[in-house]
Amino acid sequence: MLRSLGTVRALGLQDVEDALEVCGRDPVTNVFVAARILESGLAGTRGPLFSYDGGGERALCWCSANVVPVEATSSRALGALAAKVVRRRAWASSVFGPADQVLDLWGRLARHWGEPREIRENQYLMTMSTSPVALGRPVDPAVRVARRDELDLVVPAAAAMFTEEIGYPPYQGSGLAYRQGVATLVERGHCLVRVEDGQVVFKADLGSVALGVAQVQGVWVHPAWRGRGIAAPAMAAVVEHTLRHVAPTVTLYVNDFNAPAVATYRRVGFVQTGTFATVLL
């Protein structure tokens, strides 16, 4: 049985500023949780974010469908957070974040949650803050922000990307909740697409935006358009738009075994700034 070490408590409305301060120690690494804090406002007394305080260390853990540690650098903090996660949830879809924190945390959760579907131990956290145009990279002028009336085109592309990346569809039965999630990105202007003949051939989302950082996710090229060299200029267009209109730093993380994607991001100008890991459950 896991025992809690130190003080762990759920955070609420009054803790937003302090929680963002913890995330702000490394805004690139922690942008996912920072964005969720801003979106939710930590409403409710038993929200999905809790903190560890002990021995002069302050760490956080987002505990919802995804479990994400934040600044949990000690064994003591990770042990306390793991104990809280086990008490709070019987299951999650993934554990992800900085590789050292995730793999340690998962080692403590595994006995309670059983065998994972997959552990991706080496994902490159990549970042850039310089305009692709300034770097002399080609930028695809056909990539633009998706329109609200294009939702019926974007949802199938988003679902196809999810299925390819994770290995199963993003929903079973009614897809209303998934569609609403995609619609939210479109309404915020955080979904960028290239559309040809009424079909999305490229898509990328700004899935998390906070603390001056935008995290790109959901990058997808239609299978019929792969191998034509559109990915790098399209991604350059995403970065150019994001730097101009959304945030001064752009980041993403990518599986080390996805060589074509890694090469594409490097061609655009991304450099590795950290290492993530994801446990798929």
UniProtKB/TrEMBL annotation:
<dbReference type="Pfam" id="PF13312">
    <property type="entry name" value="DUF4081"/>
</dbReference>
<dbReference type="InterPro" id="IPR016794">
    <property type="entry name" value="UCP21603_acetyltransf"/>
</dbReference>
<keyword id="KW-0012">Acyltransferase</keyword>
<dbReference type="Pfam" id="PF00583">
    <property type="entry name" value="Acetyltransf_1"/>
</dbReference>
<protein>
    <recommendedName>
        <fullName>N-acetyltransferase domain-containing protein</fullName>
    </recommendedName>
</protein>
<dbReference type="InterPro" id="IPR000182">
    <property type="entry name" value="GNAT_dom"/>
</dbReference>
<dbReference type="GO" id="GO:0016747">
    <property type="term" value="F:acyltransferase activity, transferring groups other than amino-acyl groups"/>
</dbReference>
<dbReference type="InterPro" id="IPR025289">
    <property type="entry name" value="DUF4081"/>
</dbReference>
<dbReference type="InterPro" id="IPR050832">
    <property type="entry name" value="Bact_Acetyltransf"/>
</dbReference>
<dbReference type="InterPro" id="IPR016181">
    <property type="entry name" value="Acyl_CoA_acyltransferase"/>
</dbReference>
<feature type="domain" description="N-acetyltransferase">
    <location>
        <begin position="141"/>
        <end position="281"/>
    </location>
</feature>
<keyword id="KW-0808">Transferase</keyword>
